[in-house]
Write a structure and sequence with these properties.
The chain has helices spanning 3-12, 14-42, 70-82, 129-133, 166-172, 206-210, 242-253, 267-310, 312-320, 325-361, 370-396, and strands at residues 56-63, 87-93, 105-108, 117-125, 137-140, 149-152, 161-165, 182-186, 191-199, 217-225, 231-237, 259-266. The chain is elongated. It has two domains: 3-45 and 281-404, no CATH class; 65-257, no CATH class. The strands form two sheets. The protein has a six-stranded mixed β-barrel with strand order 3-4-10-7-9-8. The chain has a four-stranded antiparallel beta sheet with strand order 2-11-1-12. The protein is built from eleven helices and twelve strands. Helix 2 runs antiparallel to helix 11 (370-396), helix 8 (267-310) runs parallel beside helix 11 (370-396) and helix 10 runs antiparallel to helix 11 (370-396). The two termini are 27 Å apart. Strand 8 and strand 9 (191-199) form a beta hairpin. The chain is α+β, with helices and mostly antiparallel strands.
Length: 407
């Protein structure tokens, strides 16, 4: 059965042919881009954190009593926590590694309008910050105590020096040392600061992780406070002591009225929450892909079955003229393969366009690799072939005597 004869037959049944082609092309668009999003989400799966999160405790703390002297209270909190058995060091911080933040923070390489910007996680640490996170300095120096800015967030003078991660340094200043360079932060306005040190990478907040810049971090020497300002405490414990200290930490802090502790947790829990969200989203997208493929397979069975029912006499005539059952089955399988191939070509073009839009929208230069497209296309082709075999087998079982019936 020649392809030319099949194409001629498809022209006579163009409505069904168009439906099959559209169904396959739309399925390829949806499945390929679902796979693209899934792969993109899981790209950073279980990447190194650069931290000993099992020995770090995060206290999410808020003050609501306007009569509290926050500067003194924070200092007392830090001392109370430090006095607990098993605690090695404690610091305040703006962002916490792996945590979810509601706003983006940026670094610019200049204060000009066309300056390049880089998304970051920003950690405001005090004099104990390095010891808590075990920050490894690669070049430059750590900030001195007199370079730390203290004050109410509404009036504090921001520090003039910062330290940046190894990855961020290579992105902002490729091929040269970042030491002595000025970067401009935008968490609250655009402020310039001199880079005095570069440290080994560690993972920042989940917003940066989702944007595929997990190691773009900046350490700013500052301890700020305010009534509408979240005060995070980050605590380094002795190995194995973190989980057992949670209740003791809360008990020590609740000795002062006028505060609310949102939660206290080991950073391993924070990290798990970050990956739980990624896993759920990834499996949701894979579920969407599976449903699309199932619907397409059922649709192919229905549409090819309808095509068979419309061509009973034609099939019966071919059987009466000596066509074997396998030849009839092969005819419909080849016909389905032709339609599937056309749908895959159209779907590839549409899918590439949508994939490009998604990559641009999410500020991600990567596109789904052609190899993945080929695997998805081959999978769809095989599934459609198997789906078409059911009505094709039914067509082959048509009695040649069908041509003698009166319609």
């Amino acid at each position: 059965m020649e392809i030319r004869h099949i194409l001629s037959s498809l022209k006579r049944n163009n409505a069904l042919s168009i439906l099959i082609v559209l169904q396959i092309s739309i399925t390829l668009v949806m499945v390929s881009n679902s796979v693209f999003i899934t792969l993109d989400v899981l790209k950073g799966w279980r990447q190194p954190t650069g931290l000993k999160e099992q020995n770090l405790v995060w206290v999410y703390n808020q003050f609501y009593d306007p009569n509290l002297n926050l500067e003194d209270q924070i200092q007392r909190d830090l001392q109370d926590i430090k006095n607990l058995p098993g605690v090695m060091s404690v610091t305040t911080t703006l962002e916490v590694p792996f945590e979810s933040v509601s706003s983006f923070r940026w670094v610019f390489d200049s204060d000009k309008e066309n300056a390049a910007r880089y998304q970051i996680s920003l950690l405001d640490l005090d004099e104990n910050g390095r010891g808590v996170l075990d920050v490894e300095l690669i070049e430059g120096r750590w900030y001195s105590p007199n370079e730390i800015a203290y004050g109410d967030i509404s009036t504090v003078t921001l520090p003039s020096v910062v330290l940046i991660s190894e990855t961020l340094a290579s992105e902002v200043f490729p091929g040269e040392s970042a030491l002595g360079k000025t970067i401009y932060l935008q968490p609250n306005g655009l402020e310039g600061a001199e880079v005095i040190g570069v440290y080994r990478d560690f993972m920042g907040g989940d917003t940066a992780v989702y944007r595929e810049v997990p190691y773009n971090t900046v350490i700013r020497p500052m301890r700020a406070w305010g009534q509408d300002y979240t005060t995070n405490y980050l605590i380094k414990t002795e190995p194995g002591a973190a989980a057992g200290l949670l209740d003791h930490i809360e008990e020590a802090l609740y000795g002062t009225r006028g505060r609310y502790i949102v939660f206290t947790e080991v950073l391993t829990r924070t990290l798990k929450r970050l990956y739980d969200g990624r896993t759920s989203f990834a499996f949701t997208m894979l579920g969407v892909s599976a449903i699309c493929i199932l619907i397409t397979a059922l649709g192919i069975i229905g549409l090819v079955g309808l095509s068979v029912s419309q061509r009973y006499k034609q099939i019966g005539t071919r059987r009466a003229l000596g066509a074997t059952k396998w030849q009839v089955v092969r005819y419909f399988l080849v016909e389905n393969s032709v339609l599937t191939s056309i749908g895959l070509v159209i779907g590839f073009i549409l899918s590439y366009g949508l994939n490009y839009i998604l990559a641009t929208e999410f500020n991600n230069p990567s596109l789904i690799e052609v190899e993945y497209w080929l695997v998805i296309a081959l999978t769809l082709w095989l599934i459609n072939l198997l789906a078409a075999r059911i009505p094709a087998k039914r067509a082959a079982d048509i009695d040649p005597a069908i041509v003698t019936r009166t319609v």
